[in-house]
Specification:
The structure is a single chain. Strand 1, helix 2 and strand 2 form a beta-alpha-beta unit. This protein starts with a helix and ends with a helix. With 266 residues, the chain is α/β, with parallel strands linked by helices. The protein has a 7-stranded parallel beta sheet with strand order 3-2-1-4-5-6-7, with helices on both faces. The protein has one domain: Rossmann fold, CATH 3.40.50.720. The longest helix is centred in the middle third of the chain and has 26 residues. It contains 9 helices and 7 strands, in the order H-E-H-E-H-E-H-E-H-E-H-E-H-H-E-H. The structure holds NADP nicotinamide-adenine-dinucleotide phosphate (NAP). The site of NADP nicotinamide-adenine-dinucleotide phosphate has 28 residues, from helix 2 and helix 7.
Length: 266
């Protein structure tokens, strides 16, 4: 319980100075109720953006909404959606509703993912495999497809996919999760190449690395979470990649440690 309390507090903490670099921008974050997604949603709101909080658990989204309201930041929008079961119509409805409510969608952070079971491919349950691919890859495709019409009017929109080290080099027993992250990198590259000449949208993927969240705890139950970087400590990179001045980064598989080092003040 103590570790949980510390983790939550560290996610909420203000790790970077408040500024207005995302003023008047609208950014949708998936998996915004917990972990890295929660920290990113708060960071974007604290930098002036209106955030659309998409996630599975309404209560968690409401808690993030409440923090944003308490700090008098631009009012957030809650959009509960279970990516494991959402259908094409759900995504299309969301796309239309974003187009109706906002002049443009300026940022999309694909962050929600499930780890699923770890184990050898030979024994991986097919239903479990399909579920992980649905949440981690197919949902990102469906959401991107539905939201692109709302992003095209933005002068400099950003799409950021979330990868993992096991999505850049395969590792035994990481099963569907690892494969889904390779597919995520593929989706990022294809989309980035398509949009290079036809839009102002810049598309990248980020590997946050080992981070003190529930997912990490599930993957490494014996590890002391206090030895890991907090989600809040990654936020300078997540913020940079949503800002207009990151326009030179496109189609890149970004390593967060290098980017954080680059962004450190001299
Ligand atoms: P986390 O704390 O487990 O948070 C994952 C978020 O995704 C939660 O808000 C969760 O919602 C949401 N989500 C999961 N399944 C969903 C579904 N079916 N529908 C809608 N939302 C769903 O994980 P995290 O560590 O912050 O991970 C964030 C991203 O970073 C993931 O893409 C992960 O693969 C990646 N990553 C993390 C690490 C790490 O060490 N933590 C390392 C490499 C990559 P609920 O809270 O409602 O369940």
């Amino acid at each position: 319980m103590k570790i949980e309390a510390a983790r939550t507090a560290e996610t909420d903490e203000l790790s970077i100075p408040v500024n207005d670099t995302l003023q008047d921008r609208t950014i949708l974050v998936t998996g915004a109720g917990d972990g890295i997604g929660k920290a990113a949603a708060l960071t974007y709101a604290r930098s002036g953006a209106t955030v659309i909080l998409l996630g599975r658990t309404q209560q968690k989204l409401e808690a993030v909404y409440d923090v944003i309201a308490r700090e008098n930041l631009p009012e957030a929008v809650i959009h509960p959606l279970d990516l494991a079961i959402a259908g094409t119509d759900d995504y299309d409805l969301l796309g239309r509703s974003v187009q109706e409510q906002f002049p443009a969608l300026d940022g999309l952070l694909h962050n929600a993912s499930e780890l699923g079971a770890l184990g050898p491919i030979q024994y991986y349950a097919p239903e479990a495999w399909m579920k992980i691919m649905q949440i981690n890859v197919n949902a990102a495709f469906l959401l991107t497809r539905a939201l692109l019409p709302a992003m095209l009017p933005s002068p400099d929109a950003r799409i950021l996919f979330t990868s993992s080290s096991v999505g850049r080099k395969g590792r035994a027993y990481w099963g569907a999760y690892a494969v889904s992250k390779f597919a995520t990198e593929g989706l990022m590259q294809v989309l980035a190449d398509e949009l290079t000449e036809t839009s102002n949208i810049r598309v990248n993927s980020i590997n946050p690395g080992a981070t003190r969240t529930e997912m990490r705890r599930a993957a490494y139950p014996a590890e002391n979470p206090l030895t890991l970087p907090t989600a809040a400590s990654l936020m300078p990179a997540y913020l940079h990649l949503m800002q207009p001045d990151s326009q030179l980064l496109h189609g890149q598989a970004i390593d967060i440690r290098s980017l954080l080092t680059e962004l450190q003040p001299e």
